[in-house]
Amino acid sequence: MSIESHVGWINFCKRDLILDDESKILKDGNLTLNCTLEIYEDKAITNAEIEEDNPHVNASLLELSKSFNQLLLEPNFHDITLNVDGVKFLAHKSILSARSPVFKAMMKSPLEAESTSVEISDISKEIVKLMLQYIYSGEVGFINVQTAMGLYYAADKYELIRLKEKCSKILASNLEVSNAIDILLLGDKHFDNDLKFCCIFNS
């Protein structure tokens, strides 16, 4: 009887069989065990995940999103203006600060705390409008690749992480030979290894 015939025992092996010289299970008096170890990661379920499929919660979030977006469209009590290429966007310091760490640091700065305007020269007015729409409502709607690239830049600049991830997914899913280089350069400029990897291996 050889050891090969006993590989994969489901239950137990008798001690006498192991010690039997004819079984050849022991080699030089040593017993070798081959084990398969499976590790399962515990995943904590957050309240957000539990509530995700709750229609009442979704309805409340939708209502909240619409209300904040309406605040942007009809900016009552606004206290700051974003000046972009001759266009003035009225906004609220508290909302900008709550959504963007960069805006928050800007508003807390002694030089900017009393200021009522911000000049933005490196982002187009179309992109700033979409960025504000996202800041207030959490949505940007349908956007094409070119818009996603501009919005990606804005999201990275103002540390809007979820918006940046959304734009990155749009770019990755619309990757073509004609735009792969531009998207690759964008990913490289912003140290986005995932986007760069996608361009190199999926284009």
UniProtKB/TrEMBL annotation:
Domain BTB intervals: 78-144
Alphabetized SUPFAM superfamilies for the sequence: POZ domain, TRAF domain-like
Superkingdom of source: Eukaryota
The protein, known as: TD and POZ domain-containing protein 1-like
